[in-house]
Predict the 3D structure of the following.
Amino acid sequence: MMDMDVIFRIAGFVFGAVVGSFLNVVIFRLPAEGESIVYPPSRCPACGTPIRWYDNIPIVSYVFLRGRCRACRGTISPQYPLVELCMALLSLALYTKFGLSFEYFFYFLFLAALLAIIFIDIHHQIIPDVISLPGILIGFAGSFINSQLTWQQSGLGILLGGGMLYAVAAGYFLLTRREGMGGGDIKLLGMIGAFLGVQSLLFVVFASSLTGSAVGIAAMLKKGQGGKTRIPYGPFLALGAMLFLFFQEDIFRLWNWYMDMGIE
């Protein structure tokens, strides 16, 4: 007989993949004006043919059809199975960390929002308020029953998260007279603070700045546009938040070790 823990792990992976399939709809339709994420049902982006249920099984159908539409044989973007696989693995990682608990579902919602934001910001360089603003409210409300977070930590995370990036954006504008960071990034860090607390902010900003700078320099060298090269910052904030969620104990342990080395 299969162990119940194994069954829950498989169920968590499948649940994540199914939600990932819905996230693809959100990613492609939410930024499009007048598009509904509910209706019509999934369809081929090339020919518009509705996709049958057996051709819409997360990950599996894409592999079976070799990335092509059954009707027109047009190419389907590999982003579809990538998002499904990412959400499936994130769900499995959450179950491994928290088990079947309130925290699992609380942070599942958080990670689903971050994953959608990553791909929307990459494609459109926007972070929809319809994701980040409700996310701030949900993160704060959930902090009252979350064993990993107090409401004070969440509230300060919202205030300092949004305020920190606002100060950076305002300072950059005063120095360069150019906008270097959009309001969407500010609201996103507020949402991250709501879910992860004020203690997450320094790491998230540091990790996102480090990785964002590395990618930005590479993009400038490749495109040859210098400081005019624009890359979205939201994905780096989201990745920093994911790292903190899963590795915060290791992050604090490394920080304490660094501080002890400094004292000696």
The chain has a mean pLDDT of 87. Residues 1-100 form one domain.
